[in-house]
Amino acid sequence: QIQDKRYYDGLIQLKIRELTQEISVISREIDIQNKERTAFSHYDDRAKKLAAELTDLQGKLADYNIVIDKVTSNINKESIEREFQELQTLNDKSSEDIERLFEQRRLKEQQLRNMEEKIESEEKKEERIVEAMPSEIRSRYDELVMIRNDLELEIGCMQKEIDVLSTEKLNLEEQIALSQIKQ
């Protein structure tokens, strides 16, 4: 029985060594993958920077090609400068228009904020007036508000019904007009 125990202890020791070796192999693989991931992100960032630089250089190349085309097509310096001045003037005008529109928008937004503040102030005034009312007047006010709300709902329903009936009337009038033509 002692040999059996030693035998199993030896087996366990062997399996522990195998597991330890496997764990170290997996750890090395994880380290390698982490290094590759870091290198990939570095290369990806570098590729993005180079792509942006390439785009910038392509833009400059296009500008140079335009200049070369102008020079080779016998366009003189004065016409290029004149075109530049026209484009500069157009650009300045566009900038002024944008500034003016921005200022108008800012003013409209300020007016809107002022109106919202006035509305809020009036609503608070109304609340204070309602709160200051004696209880019998307050209950009558609440009753009238409920009646108004009910009437607004009723008016909305009636308006929808009127719209439906008007559409139906138009359809019937068209049918009558068409049937008279057939007769």
UniProtKB/TrEMBL annotation:
Q: Name one GO cellular component term.
A: intraciliary transport particle B
Put simply, this protein is called Uncharacterized protein
| GO biological process terms held by the UniProt record | intraciliary transport involved in cilium assembly
Annotated coiled-coil positions are 77-175
Q: What organism is recorded for this protein? A: Bracon brevicornis
MF (Gene Ontology): beta-tubulin binding
InterPro entries attached to this UniProt entry: IFT74
Q: Does the UniProt entry include the keyword Coiled coil?
A: yes
Write the record's keywords in alphabetical order, separated by commas. Answer: Coiled coil
The answer, when asked if Coiled coil is one of the entry's keywords, is yes
